[in-house]
UniProtKB/TrEMBL annotation:
Residues 49-452 form the Major facilitator superfamily (MFS) profile domain. Gene3D superfamilies: MFS general substrate transporter like domains. Residues 1-13 have a biased composition (Polar residues). InterPro entries: MFS, MFS_dom, MFS_trans_sf. It is found in: Membrane. Residues 1-21 are annotated as: Disordered. The lineage of its organism: Eukaryota, Fungi, Dikarya, Ascomycota, Taphrinomycotina. One of its GO terms (molecular function) is transmembrane transporter activity. One of its GO terms (cellular component) is plasma membrane. This is Putative transporter. Keywords: Membrane, Transmembrane, Transmembrane helix, Transport. It comes from Neolecta irregularis (strain DAH-3). Pfam families: MFS_1 (PF07690). Its main location: membrane.
């Protein structure tokens, strides 16, 4: 997920500015109330663009589990095993691993709007190809490329929110955005319905979503001023950056890995977020085992226990809105709510594990979803906000690194969920996950204590 551009820093040294002034060069900037400045959009427009971007993410995210609801039909049609059928979900998510490395640098070269368009149209086409596939190989290939294209909106939506909202509102908006996505995430929608919604969203996006990326908007302002005044000394910082697309792509592919394995904060938070993200996908395989196999729920009501997860996410969103009112003096202040998420995850996992048997009333494991949903959202949003604040100038690379690790977890966890819970049993399988959660739980506390010292010796921190 990308929030702030890596490669086009707007800060310039005083000596550089003096040199430009002596040569008659005029660097453009936004004035207060400048209509081209995305941060000056009216509040109604900001909310609309946030809603539209969130709808694009919601649609792409729901598509990741679209084949889960028709898995038995895929198995019968192509006469394949359940493990092969699950590849239709796993490879879609694996597309999230590669997508950010392509779309993030392209958005930093050409802006958000063109990338929204050139990625979403192929996404629709590949999704249609899935429905028309005559073999399991073509289905899996189309799903993979659909995931690569869908990754664009995962990268661009946080960037759009960052472009138009200030830092104080950004935290609560990220939380509201992901709560809405995860609240709807458990509903399996049919692929034809997904394609219909995708087509409608694409048309609305083409005609209503403007460019919001600040460096590109400054380029447009410089072009406008040169045209209006006839003075060609006006320029935007990006016009003199001197970087080629090949250079930006090279940095985009190398820097995330250098930061992932060279920055303690990036590596440790990415491991925690990857576990939480993989756990979310694992639960979509574990819930049917607990409620449909153990408690004999039919397919029609088998999704109702997910209400517990949705309720937990809603509580987390409300707490995040309350927390956003605090004055944040350091990036570690973002971790107050995250500290609560660690114990909640441990409690939820052991609760679910040891009440998920047929001799315990179904409402008990359903209620375990409340602390699980609360923990998943608070840990996910808290750590992503923390990474954004710590690595403000390099947030695109940090989010790419984080996306790689969590997408690998999201793609891998469903492949062993069924075997793990059926061979070990719900109690022991859930306890193993709970033990990992216990091991990771102290991490927010450690960053609160040692985070400032770690940031002080990093060359990438803001």
């Amino acid at each position: 997920m990308s929030t702030v551009p890596d490669h086009f820093s707007q800060s310039r040294s005083l000596s550089d500015r003096d040199t430009e002034k002596n040569h008659g060069c005029k660097e453009v900037s936004f004035d207060v109330g400048d209509p081209l400045d995305a941060t000056q959009f009216s509040r109604i427009r900001k909310w609309y663009f946030t809603f539209l971007a969130s709808m694009l993410v919601l649609n792409a995210t729901l598509a990741s589990s679209a084949t889960s609801g028709i898995l038995s039909g895929i198995i019968r049609r192509f006469d394949i095993s359940s493990e092969v059928a699950l590849l239709s979900t796993s490879l879609y998510i694996f597309g999230y691993v590669l997508g950010p490395f392509l779309w993030a640098p392209l958005s930093e070269m050409f802006g958000r709007r063109p990338i929204y368009i050139i990625s979403y149209l192929p996404y629709i086409c590949f999704s249609l190809g899935c429905g028309l596939s005559q073999s399991v190989a073509s289905l899996i290939i189309f799903r993979f490329f659909a995931g690569v294209c869908a990754a664009a909106v995962l990268v661009l939506c946080p960037g759009t929110i960052t472009d138009i909202w200030d830092a104080r509102r950004r935290g609560s908006l990220f939380c509201a955005h992901y709560w809405w996505v995860y609240r709807e995430f458990n509903w399996y929608t049919s692929p034809p319905f997904e394609n219909l919604i995708s087509g409608v969203l694409f048309i609305v996006m083409v005609f209503t979503l403007p460019e919001t990326y600040r460096p590109i908007l400054l380029v447009k302002k410089a072009e406008q001023m040169r045209k209006e005044t006839g003075d060609h000394s006006y320029y935007a910082p990006m016009e003199r950056d001197g970087r080629s697309l090949a250079g930006v792509l090279r940095i985009s592919f190398s820097r995330p890995f250098r930061m992932l394995f060279g920055e303690e904060i990036v590596f440790l938070t990415s491991v925690y977020v990857a576990f939480v993200y993989g756990l979310l996908y694992l639960l979509f395989g574990a819930y049917p085992i607990v409620f449909q196999e153990n408690h004999r729920f039919g397919h029609g009501v088998g999704g109702l226990p997910f209400i517990g997860l949705a309720l937990g996410c809603a509580i987390a969103a409300l707490v995040q809105v309350w927390d956003a009112k605090r004055d944040l003096k350091t990036p570690e202040d973002r971790l107050l709510i995250t500290i609560m998420g660690g114990p909640a995850l441990v409690a939820g996992l052991f609760w679910f594990a040891w009440t998920g048997t047929s001799n315990v009333h179904w409402i008990v494991p359903t209620l375990a979803g409340v602390p699980l949903g609360f923990a998943i959202l608070t840990l996910f949003i808290g750590f992503l906000n923390y990474l954004t604040d710590v690595y403000l100038a390099y947030a695109a690379s940090v989010m790419a690194a984080n996306t790689v690790l969590r997408s690998l977890a999201g793609a891998g966890f469903p492949l062993f969920t069924k075997q793990m819970f059926e061979n070990l049993g719900v109690q022991h399988a859930g306890s193993i996950l709970g033990a990992f959660a216990v091991f990771l739980a102290p991490m927010p506390h450690l960053f609160v204590k040692y985070g400032p010292a770690i940031r002080a010796r990093s060359k990438f921190t803001s």
